[in-house]
């Protein structure tokens, strides 16, 4: 079978799904190829044993550390990509993140585009993903042309108490901006029930605005959009000139098939997009496609992430905990003249999650007690782009992730600051777990965009400098990542690239 399309998008996650959604009304023939299927809707979606202990929805693929040690990456191959299990805390990067920022471990480089270039697309993205939030309470909030589409999700009493106590201490706790389909005043009208199985669970009632629910399913309402699942793209072939992608090789339900298109968009997630480009090398592109700069796979960034479980005598009966954030230390700390990052609450840690974090083996009853008294935080600090942090692929397609975290001092500072505040609020026991690189939740970089083909992979429209019809529209394009969660920015970028396509289609 050899089918020709106008636009072929590889990967139906946040980037690819958004692009398909935005281009569907153009009437162009669009093919979306996704290696996974639909995530099964089943009771296990909300079962902590299935999610945390059995890792039911995670790929069983193995990736490798530089010394050859295999690891099991926390990636999820489904329609909707990793957003099927994401925490739905979608934030704009801050205006300053688009400029060069001096960090503890060096400069976070400026983007060749400004916050103003992204602002209209952030507004569209917030509408598409049904963002709830409260303008005006965040000291780091960038200028916004519109209010959030929905009001904030209210804190439950224990969290409101903590918010009030933090405010009394001079902080500015914010309502987290969340992509949930919820009507706080009339909960019967929308599916979100504010449950305790939100992140990192799939949503059984389809209330989480993930890329499948918000983008792919609406795109499929258009006859010109076709989705093929269980379609693993293994190679991109160029024409003889090496300037155009001529065909896309796909393992479709185990059978090799080829497709072609006027425009080919890679959107497999930062690591798999780099893999696909690197393993598609040929005579014209001996180091991999789009890789004349040698930068495909490099500048891999992950964020420095830590979970902090804080236990007090006071019980925490909160069901939906993920409503509060602290951004006061985003750009500097009380004694630190460098950015520290952001703090947010996570979903309520159940005892199964604590089992992973316990410093020693503990009986279930103890873990249940701790879970009933803990308030559970997530601390994020920027990871700076480094050439040596990279993805490599061998001839067999084996992925090796070379990543040494940097900027770890401000991360430690931020955790200490949070603990100091919480200690004064009566918390006495702290468990922290810093995520290893193997977690790969916020994989960013690998195909950075820029104006100069010698030091970037993509141009400002996310087209490969080296090829006329190849684009990359996932988290790969970020020149630096800030410390806000990345998905809203990559969704906004996909909407921006869609506008570029639309203007070309008109011309
Ligand atoms: C547990 C968890 C919690 C998270 N929480 C948040 C959060 O609260 N806020 C936030 O902003 N971000 C969060 N993230 C990160 C967020 O999920 C990612 O930023 C986002 O999904 C990245 O989008 P993407 O398009 O780059 O990749 P993905 O969304 O992963 O999409 C890539 C798609 O490509 C498919 N694919 C890969 N290779 C191929 C191939 N060769 N052929 C065909 N298809 C292929 C994959 O199956 C997948 O569907 C979280 C992630 C995880 C895992």
Automatic annotation (TrEMBL):
It comes from the Bacteria. Gene3D superfamilies: FAD/NAD(P)-binding domain (3.50.50.60). Keywords: FAD, Flavoprotein, Oxidoreductase. Residues 187-303 form the Glucose-methanol-choline oxidoreductase N-terminal domain. Residues 431-494 form the Glucose-methanol-choline oxidoreductase C-terminal domain. Transmembrane segments: none annotated. InterPro entries: FAD/NAD-bd_sf (IPR036188), GMC_OxRdtase (IPR012132), GMC_OxRdtase_N (IPR000172), GMC_OxRtase_C (IPR007867). Belongs to the GMC oxidoreductase family. This is GMC oxidoreductase. The lineage of its organism: Bacteria, Bacillati, Cyanobacteriota, Cyanophyceae, Nodosilineales.
């Amino acid at each position: 079978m050899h089918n020709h399309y106008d636009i072929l998008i590889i990967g139906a996650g946040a980037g690819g799904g958004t692009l398909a959604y935005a281009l569907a009304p153009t009437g162009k023939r669009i093919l979306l190829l996704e290696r996974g299927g639909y995530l099964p809707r089943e009771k296990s979606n909300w079962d902590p044993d299935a999610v945390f202990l059995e890792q039911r929805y995670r790929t069983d693929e193995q990736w490798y550390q530089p010394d050859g040690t295999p690891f099991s990456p926390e990636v999820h191959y489904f329609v909707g990509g990793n957003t099927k299990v994401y925490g739905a805390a979608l934030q704009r990067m801050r205006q300053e993140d688009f400029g060069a920022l001096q960090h503890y471990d060096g400069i976070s480089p400026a983007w060749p585009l400004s916050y103003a270039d992204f602002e209209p697309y952030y507004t569209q993205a917030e509408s598409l993903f049904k963002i709830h939030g409260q303008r005006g309470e965040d000291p780091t909030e960038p200028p916004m042309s519109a209010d959030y589409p929905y009001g904030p999700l209210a804190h439950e009493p224990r969290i409101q108490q903590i918010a009030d106590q933090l405010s009394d201490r001079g902080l500015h706790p914010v309502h987290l901006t969340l992509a949930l389909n919820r009507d706080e005043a009339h909960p019967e009208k929308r599916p979100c029930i504010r449950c305790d199985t939100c992140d990192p669970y799939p949503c059984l009632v389809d209330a989480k605005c993930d890329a499948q629910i918000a983008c792919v399913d609406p795109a499929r309402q258009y006859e010109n959009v076709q989705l093929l699942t269980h379609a693993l793209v293994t190679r991109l072939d160029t024409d003889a000139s090496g300037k155009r992608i001529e065909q896309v090789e796909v393992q479709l339900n185990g059978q090799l098939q080829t497709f072609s298109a006027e425009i080919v968009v890679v959107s497999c997630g930062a690591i798999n997009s780099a893999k696909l480009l690197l393993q598609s090398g040929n005579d014209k592109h001996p180091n991999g496609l789009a890789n004349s700069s040698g930068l495909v796979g490099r500048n891999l960034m992950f964020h420095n992430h830590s979970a902090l479980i804080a236990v007090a005598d006071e019980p925490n009966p909160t069901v939906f905990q993920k409503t509060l954030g602290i951004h006061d230390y985003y750009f500097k700390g009380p004694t630190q003249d460098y950015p520290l990052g952001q703090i947010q609450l996570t979903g309520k840690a159940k005892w199964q999650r604590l089992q992973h974090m316990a410093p020693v083996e503990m009986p279930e009853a103890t873990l249940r007690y701790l879970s009933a008294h803990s308030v559970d935080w997530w601390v994020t600090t920027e990871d700076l782009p480094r050439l040596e942090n990279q993805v490599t692929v061998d001839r067999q397609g084996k992925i090796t992730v070379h990543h040494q975290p940097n900027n770890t001092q401000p991360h430690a500072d931020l955790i200490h600051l949070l603990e100091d505040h919480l200690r004064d609020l009566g918390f006495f026991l702290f468990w922290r777990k810093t995520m290893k690189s193997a977690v790969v939740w916020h994989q960013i970089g690998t195909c950075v965009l820029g104006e100069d083909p010698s030091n970037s992979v993509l141009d400002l429209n996310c087209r490969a400098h080296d090829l006329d019809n190849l684009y990359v529209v996932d988290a790969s394009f970020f020149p630096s990542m800030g410390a806000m969660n990345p998905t809203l920015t990559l969704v906004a970028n996909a909407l921006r690239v869609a506008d570029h396509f639309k203007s070309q289609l008109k011309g």
